[in-house]
Design goal:
two-stranded antiparallel sheet, globular, 8 helices
Length: about 300
């Protein structure tokens, strides 16, 4: 019986080139490797883009609860967001450029007007509140229609008196509701409570905020950096508040029984934000709580 031979041991046919045997996969050429890398990168980028677009759809939900201080006369938040057409008319007429338009981080409120009082408060330099007059939809209004209710504590007991108009025939602002309330959030850093004075520029030389100073020009707001202070006891929040009787420096009893002076916010506060803007302490010790109501 003849012995079987392994086919691999058989001689190659004449004229046929002998192929080299390899124990692993045949290596790819440089061009093939580059194509493979490009395919992987495209897959990664496309996947990231799809996931990013899907996640961006949830941003309005995530940031919907972020509170913004709305311009004077703003409706309650839900009604404001549903009626504002984001036209920017209020932004254009503000004499101190206090009103900004919200970006994507404001969720469902993207494109709507708001005020950052620490950067630039509403000091009512326009007297007649031009943003309300410019609003075409009633999102900012002097008086709500009857079918829109007023939240308890949001209504003002009386029309606020604007100090800049106190000697005019009509000194009041035609406001019915406040847009927020000032709160002393960091009393431990308040200069008035510490019994300290203040000298210099309230927010430093680089601060761009502006305000109307009656002693300088009733009609033209000037840079706060151009109006330095020199007071033995700090009272800037009460001194520059544009609403009569909204904030004062009072002598109160401390928890240890001692007497001290501190800012006290009163029911006349409309939430304009001047006290927050002018506070020389960093971070500010007094802040506006947007849409806050009065609590006696």
């Amino acid at each position: 019986m003849s012995e079987q031979k392994d086919p691999s041991d058989l001689p190659e046919p004449a004229g046929k080139p002998k192929l080299a045997r390899s124990d692993g996969p045949v290596p790819l050429s440089i061009s093939r490797r580059q194509q493979a890398r490009r395919r992987i990168l495209r897959t990664i980028l496309l996947s990231g883009g799809v996931l990013g677009a899907a996640a961006s759809g949830y941003l309005p939900v995530v940031y919907a609860q972020k509170q913004r201080l709305r311009p004077p006369g703003a409706l309650d938040e839900k009604d404001f967001l549903s009626s504002c057409i984001k036209c920017g008319q209020c932004v254009q007429v503000c004499p101190v450029q206090a009103i900004k338009l919200a970006d994507l981080l404001d969720g469902f409120g993207v494109g709507t007007p708001y005020i950052d009082p620490r950067e630039q408060a509403c000091d009512f330099s326009c007297d007649a509140v031009q943003c309300i007059l410019a609003c075409p939809t009633g999102s900012l209004t002097y008086e709500k229609p009857d079918f829109l209710g007023v939240r308890p504590g949001a209504a003002l007991a009386a029309k606020p008196i604007l100090l800049a108009k106190e000697k005019d025939a009509e000194p009041t602002l035609n406001f019915r509701e406040r847009i927020g309330v000032a709160r002393l959030t960091r009393p431990e850093s308040c200069l008035a409570i510490k019994g300290k004075g203040f000298k210099g520029q309230a927010r430093g030389a680089e601060f761009k905020g502006r305000m109307r100073y009656m002693a300088v020009d009733r009609w033209k707001p000037i840079s706060i950096a151009d109006h330095p202070y020199d007071v033995a006891e700090c009272d800037l929040c009460a001194r520059e508040c544009p609403i009569k009787g909204a904030i004062s420096i009072e002598t109160v009893s401390a928890p240890d029984g001692s007497k001290r002076k501190q800012p006290v916010v009163h029911e006349h506060c409309v939430g304009c934000g001047v006290c927050e803007m002018i506070c020389p302490v960093e971070p500010t010790c007094i802040e506006i709580v947007p849409r806050e109501v009065w609590r006696a």
